[in-house]
Design a protein that fits this description.
This is Ribonuclease Z. With about 220 residues, this protein is α/β, with parallel strands linked by helices. The chain is built from seven helices and 13 strands. The strands form three sheets. A six-stranded mixed β-sheet has the order 1-2-3-4-5-6, with no helix packed on it. Strands 7-8-9-12-13 form a five-stranded mixed β-sheet, covered by helices on one side. About 5% of the residues have low confidence.
């Protein structure tokens, strides 16, 4: 998974005006957490295409988090985007979008699906799960990616005279088989190394509290928004 801060100064991360780009290694789609001013310019300068943007997640309706949203949506419309876009945010976000379209006299030629944030699971795509938790400073998130099984070596399995079938799936998961002649067939030797899972915590509150401590426990990465 690729994580990038979409800020002009990547060496000094401030408490406000923080936007994060997330990209899963196996897919070209990108997700953006908060849409600050100049967000689309920073996406392009980081080497990504804004048309690959599939999800926008907003922690709150603070001006620092949404100042670049309407400009980004308009730019997607200008480049002829046709695929849908999913936007996650607080319940009042729909009024902000409606007023923005009304006063700018802009209509989008692609579908925008607005998802109201609530505590619990909000995204479960590509084997990646994102959970939202409400706090006084806005919504906080935990992203969990499970362990990914390695690539199954088909040629090596054929060399061991293994016929294609359900056993391939079990061997890929590392299951071992004891054959009638006493030979042990180890699935680990027939697959590449598994990709370890990860846990990413995105917090809006930098002060210590019980909920934050419980959320970041056993995590791999911590981001302060």
């Amino acid at each position: 998974m690729i994580l990038r801060y979409l800020n002009s100064n990547l060496y000094v991360v401030q408490k406000s005006n923080i936007s994060v780009l997330m990209k899963l290694s196996s897919f070209k789609d990108i997700w953006v957490l908060n849409c600050t001013e100049g967000c689309q310019f920073n996406i392009v300068t980081q080497g990504f295409k804004i048309n690959n943007l599939s999800k926008i997640i907003l922690t709150s309706l603070h001006i620092n988090n949404i100042s670049g949203l309407l400009g980004l949506l308009s730019s997607l419309n200008l480049i002829g985007r046709t695929k849908s876009l999913h936007v996650y945010g607080p319940i009042d976000l729909r009024y902000y979008l409606d007023l923005g379209k009304k006063y700018s006299h802009t209509n989008f030629n692609y579908a925008i699906y607005l998802h109201i944030l609530k505590t619990g699971l909000i995204i479960n795509h590509y084997g990646c799960r994102i959970y939202a938790f409400y706090s006084k400073c806005g919504f906080e998130f935990i992203m969990i990616r499970p362990e990914q099984y390695g690539t199954f070596f088909l040629d090596k399995a054929r060399c061991n005279y293994l016929a294609p079938g359900p056993s391939y799936g079990k061997l890929k998961k590392g299951v071992s088989f004891l054959l009638p002649d006493g030979f042990t067939l180890d699935g680990v030797s027939l697959t590449s190394q598994n990709t370890m899972g990860s846990k990413l915590s995105c917090l809006a509150n930098s002060f210590y509290c019980r909920k934050s401590i419980e959320n970041v426990s056993s995590g791999n990465v911590l981001l302060l928004l």
